[in-house]
Amino acid sequence: MIATYGGGCFWCTEVIFKQLQGVKSVLPGYMGGQRENPTYEQVCTGATGHAEVVQIDYDETVLPYRKLLEVFFKTHDPTTLNRQGNDVGTQYRSVIFYHDEQQRIEAEEFIRQLTTHEVYDDPIVTAIAPAQPFYVAENYHHDYFNNNPQNPYCAAVIAPKLQKFLKGLQ
């Protein structure tokens, strides 16, 4: 099965989802825009309309879609429009791209439950949209955190987020 999420910088989301048992692969890329085969530089301008996303290939017998939704919502702020921390722009929007009707239904129900239980102080702004063409990011973005642990962004933003997530798995 395939799941596609945009939850800010794909360097952050890729490393989180790679930790889950049942995940076969995680690819950073772009979805939801108007331009074919956009580059990172083009997406960063916000002019293409794409979001930075991760496309997750997973075994649903090991890892149900609902668990992916739980991780997605625990590891980014779904209440900030077009922003995650200091990353600002439509390319950092919170979005679930569904690949079939069941994913759409589960995502809508999950958000409804979070809202009903007032899990967040502010309203959830995560968009739910049908999957569109997925464009794989340039090779240097793949496994970025593990390949660039000394990068200031990785050390200051991703490492603490990953540590917090890993503590929650124990």
Descriptive notes:
Helices cover 36% and strands 22% of the residues. The chain has helices at residues 10-17, 40-44, 65-74, 101-116, 144-147, 152-169; strands at residues 2-7, 23-31, 51-58, 83-84, 87-88, 94-98, 127-130, 135-136. Strands 7-6-1-3-2-8 form a 6-stranded mixed beta sheet, covered by helices on one side. Strands 4-5 form a two-stranded antiparallel sheet. The radius of gyration is 15 Å and the shape is globular. The model has no long low-confidence stretch (mean pLDDT 96).
How is the topology of this model organized?
Blueprint: E1 2-7, H1 10-17, E2 23-31, H2 40-44, E3 51-58, H3 65-74, E4 83-84, E5 87-88, E6 94-98, H4 101-116, E7 127-130, E8 135-136, H5 144-147, H6 152-169
Helix pairs in contact: 1-6, 3-4
Structural descriptors:
6 helices; 8 strands; globular; six-stranded mixed beta sheet; alpha+beta; two-stranded antiparallel sheet; single chain; 170 residues
